[in-house]
Amino acid sequence: MAEERPPRLVDYFVVAGLAGSGGAVPEETGGPEPGGPLRPPRPADPITDVAIIARALGEEVPQGYTCIQTSASGHPLELSAGLLGGSQPTICYRRGRDKPPLVELGVLYEGKEHPKPGFQVLETTPYSHSANLAPPGPGHPRTYLTYRRAAEGAGLHALGITDLCLILPSKGEGTPHTYCRLPRNLNPGMWGPAVYLCYKVGLAKANTLVYEAELLGRYPEQDNEAFPLPESVPVFCLPMGATIECWPAQTKYPVPVFSTFVLTGAAGDKVYGAALQFYEAFPRARLSERQARALGLLSAVERGRALGGRAVRSRRAVAVLSRWPAFSAFHAFLTFLYRYSVSGPHRLPLEAHISHFMHNVPFPSPQRPRILVQMSPYDNLLLCQPVSSPLPLSGASFLQLLQSLGPELAVTLLLAVLTEHKLLVHSLRPDLLTSVCEALVSMIFPLHWQCPYIPLCPLVLADVLSAPVPFIVGIHSSYFDLHDPPADVICVDLDTNTLFQTEEKKLLLPRTLPRRPYKVLLNTLTTLHQQLDQTYTRPEEEASLEFLLTDYEAVCGRRARLEREVQGAFLRFMACLLKGYRAFLRPLTQAPSESARDVENLFFLQGFLKSRERSSHKFYAQLLHTQMFSQFIEECSFGSSRHAALEFFDSCVDKVHPEQEKPEPVPLVELEEPSGSELTVFITPPEEPIVAEGSESTPLYCYDGFPELRAELFESPQEQPGLSPAPGPSRSAPSSPAPRRTKQEMKVAQRVAQKSAAVPELWARCLLGHCYGLWFLCLPAYVQSSSSRVRALHTAYQVLRQMESRKVVLPDEVCYRVLMQLCSHYGEPVLSVRVMLDMRRAGIVPNTITYGYYNKAVLESKWPSGTTGGRLRWAKLRNVVLGAAQFRQPLRERRQQEQALRGARSSQPVIEALGVLEPQGSPLSWHDGSLSDVSLASEDPAPGGSPGGTGMALSAHSAEALDGLGGQAPKAGKRQDAVGTPRRGIGARLQQLLTPSRRSPASRAPPPELPSDLSLSARRSPMDSLLRPRERPGSTASESSTSLGSEWDLSENSLSSLSIQRSSERLSDTPGLSQPPPVEILLSSCSLCRACDSLVYDEEIMAGWAPDDSNLNTTCPFCSRPFVPLLSVQTLDSRPRDLHNPPTSASASNKDAPLPGGPGPVLSDRRLCLALDDSSVCNGDAESVPRRVEGGAWAYLSPLVLRKELESLVENEGSEVLALPELPAAHPILFWNLLWYFQRLRLPSTLPGLVLAAGDGPPSAQAPSLPSEPAAVQVRLLWDVLTPEPDSCPPLYVLWKAHSQIPHRVAWPGTAPAPLSSLTLLEAVLLHVGFNEVHKAVALLLDMLGPPPGGLHLQRSIYREILFLTMAALGKDHVDIAAFDKKYKAAFNKLASSLGKEELRRRRAQMPSPKAIDCRKCFGAPLEC
Fold this sequence. Notes:
Blueprint: E1 12-17, E2 47-54, E3 65-67, E4 89-95, E5 102-109, E6 120-122, E7 143-149, E8 160-167, E9 180-181, E10 196-202, E11 208-211, E12 214-219, H1 233-237, E13 242-248, E14 257-264, E15 270-281, H2 289-294, E16 310-322, H3 327-341, H4 350-360, E17 370-376, E18 379-384, H5 398-405, H6 407-418, E19 423-427, H7 430-442, E20 453-454, E21 472-476, E22 490-493, E23 498-500, H8 515-535, H9 539-542, H10 545-550, H11 552-577, H12 599-602, H13 605-610, H14 617-623, H15 627-638, H16 643-655, E24 680-683, H17 743-756, H18 760-777, H19 779-785, H20 789-805, H21 813-825, H22 829-841, H23 848-860, H24 870-906, E25 910-911, E26 916-917, H25 956-965, H26 984-994, H27 1052-1055, E27 1079-1084, E28 1087-1089, E29 1094-1096, H28 1098-1104, E30 1114-1115, E31 1122-1123, E32 1126-1133, H29 1166-1170, H30 1175-1178, E33 1188-1195, H31 1199-1213, H32 1223-1226, H33 1228-1240, H34 1247-1254, E34 1273-1278, H35 1292-1299, H36 1314-1317, H37 1319-1330, H38 1334-1345, H39 1358-1370, H40 1377-1395, H41 1397-1402, H42 1410-1418
Parallel strand pairs: 17-24, 19-21, 19-22, 20-21, 27-34
Antiparallel strand pairs: 1-12, 1-16, 2-4, 3-4, 5-7, 6-7, 8-10, 9-10, 11-13, 13-16, 14-15, 15-16, 17-18, 22-23, 25-26, 27-32, 28-29, 30-31, 32-33
């Protein structure tokens, strides 16, 4: 599969400005004419000087100065009024453009502080008197005005003070809108009212014509279907309009102004824009006489005479649009283009750089975490992958919000946004508006602002301020030079840190917020604001080389940390605000109505309000009736594209404690640093044209200004095969998000796995839970491939109930969610309700995603008819008839059992456990002398028909053998001399010890009468402790028992059969077929540790896995070294390649090999019973149909690792890939691991059918759906290795089979040493085990092997050798492994007292760890060897 092309960083490049090239400019200006009250015209020139005059000393106002004699509301002013000796100071100012304007004022108390850097103190009046504003006297500090002037050469467009005023708070006067108020009182004495100085900073310009900006150029010319270019982009690039201005000829060009804006689509998706505004020369010839006069180019006295020393300039902008808020990179790129256009000549056109940047610069990704773009030999920019955060990506800057507003004002604005007020944010810095407005809508997460939102509003669109709905709008402060703010709008001035609101629309007080969360938020913001002041550096300091070399990384790191902490403080407050909201959600449980989507039906508003503290009810009452809260409840109820973010918020809600007065020590936002190495992708500049050898390249492109874009100069994109340049943050996955876990769910699963790894029982159930998660991940493909979708859904529901009954750790919410989604897709709302009820019964609170899929299933599915007509009455009648039939059923069954019992007594006993009939016959003679005297024992249940009391016991002959082994003289049996063997005594005793009879637990026939002379010792055996509790012999009526392993290949695990309750879907095979399966698959997870040459078995591998979804290693239990386990696979394919010659039945060609489910071998034929383990016997004669054998080994993955890889596959290729025949070949590791786990847990799946579909068999077998013939594929899970090592020693159980002439599955390549090949050793080990003397068996093997490294080395541990030997001699279904483990543990502790535990571990005599034992118990019955 080809690599997907990463998304582009930039989607569009546009040029905006005044339309027309060379033509006359239209007379009608397209300037802004927004509605609203007009202000009187402002003076055009800024304030350049300020002075103090002493009226009491006879000083007059200097020429050109204006004196402030009244307050802002017209009240008379007189500083130090009524005091004897007062100088009656008065403030005067002068306007002009002969010097740089004043930019900031201050008040200095002499003796208490020093002047700020860059400020000058106004100490004297123009007449050389003292300019002290305070009244005379020792108790009043001398008070002076201070000012700061703009730098020399700042130019015409430098910000400056445009107005001054004095206010009297005692008269009810407040700070005028857009004015900055000095905090020091100008009249600090005891007499007279307090007086404060206010000043306004603005951009004073004259001789300007304003037009509406238009689109001058764009690239690409064609719109992208997924993201068309909005028509309003030009007015956002130039929000103040496209202007024509008249400057003095010597005026320098101002520095280009960078601004950002956000466009919101109909679906709520954001498009980020960045624009660079600059000025260019404008020809006078395009101006009319009227326009020239308005610009001051013509004399007002002499009509038509042009004035000299003037220059005409026009404003233009270049901008980029993107889905990513990479504003710093956009600023660098646009600045490079501007500098390129004003320099030259160049060998490459400007269009080449634009197209090269757009086509070749991607957004950083985990594969490309760092991208270094070299735009020219002197210009470059670095793009870094954003820190992974569960919060939505935005252009917000919480530091600028806090720095511009302060803690208290920031909390006040939070209250205004939560209650949906009209907010108007304004500033003289356009790049600040977007970042602050983005922070305002981001700090209310998880709520989403639903009303109009324009972070940078052009003046032509200022009519939105009169809208009757709430809004958040950012606008340039020059708007208020022409208009007063609307009466019902809250205005926020970022330049003066003030909030302006009228009496008509007052905000709630912050004390209406929840008390403790509000207090914690305010304290946290105050602390962070103080830290922010300490880390602040001026722009000129940041531009210094010393700063870049020493402090840049440290300062940027501190700012990034502070940014996250401020965002985390708002997030904690919102989590406390909505704590417990999920308990008040109302799920849909019946057929939906028209009002199903109403908030009152989805959320219990009154209950939630009553659960809050009473002092906050007024605030909550407004919050609950906002549009964004209604949308939030609807998203929680029905799901949305923000499901991952909402789920993250739910986890934050669980972490916070609103009653605490301090924030939690663990941060809510746990950031993931970009994974992978510090790989940097280097993007070179566009290639220059090739120059012939011997000739010099001549620059061809020189610009006087930004040129008109020419389409033929753009570079065409270099498309690569298999790559799709789809714009946007990410490509939509082809599958639904329901089967996949979100990042938050993965984090929770990882934490639970790490906690469970320390507890053996929890670790086993954790792995089991992930196995069920794997099956439900494959459920969509299973249901789609099923012939009956509804039946498959009910099968999945039964699997869900089975998972709950096994009490897995972390009952995965994805399992419920997948089933709910499928219920919605296939129209089963009732089943979805049942799943939800089971989920809540299991104690699982559904998250946002699961809850949304549930409500969708209930709302969108077609419900069954609810009419109570004839159908309901017929159903009642049917139930009555069925109930009566059920009462008669036991009587009918009892008669049938009595008839069957009479027939069985008259003919032959029935062995229901094996499903075969066995005639009584003479015991089988064993020519090697190992075993003898095998006969049939009848099998009857205990009195009363209780399953627990039924069973078989040893015969009297067994009792005699027990007496002989116990030290007494052996007694002669009735048929002691019937058949003679060289080793008859030990063989008879082993036979009675190791072959107890197996009863049928389902038998209900009345028990026969036991002989009265049967002693108690004849009814019990030393091997009774090794048998399963339900299979221990309770009574007997004959002298022998079942064979050793007669049910190995008839077990459910080996044949992989499954019949889930109320479901006809089965896994792969069912015993009892008349034909052998065409394909047989053998799987084994037993792996060899190369470090210590020891075999590690399945449960030990599970116990050694790490709780990490990226770690493939397990830990060897013997040498403690990590290694990658392997899953060995062997496929035996007997399907004929010739379609016209179907395979014939192999049952007739091999008379000695019974077929599963057929008549079977008699129990007296011990060799054939044990031969069922051989694959050729189970599946017919191997020689009759040639079998193609294919094998391999793949990594055996932990369920945690496998699930992560499978989720990645489903996300990239869709869930349909799990039903394709190419799956085994394309993804063999995933396929075989899934098949192993599903077979291990007996779960239905389509995987066995894919083996047929992917093979070379007949076309009829190629069906990726559930196979119509379940027996087409037989899957056997083996405990031991499939193929032994060439030089390995055969295990004891293989030697036992060899002595007993029982064919093994494979021929062992190696030869056993002489001590191991002795039958005496094997019998001795079995005798010790039979008499519960396991420590003697262990000691015997240790003595025989000898101490390492000189002794014999077995790949299997002592525990495995004894366990497998016992299972081979007795049959795995007759061995209680739990009881064996207890005996072995006692034996280990007994030997440890003499040899030491470390010595026993060094010689590999220890038993598996508790974690391994729990894994074996949790995953079901043990496998076959």
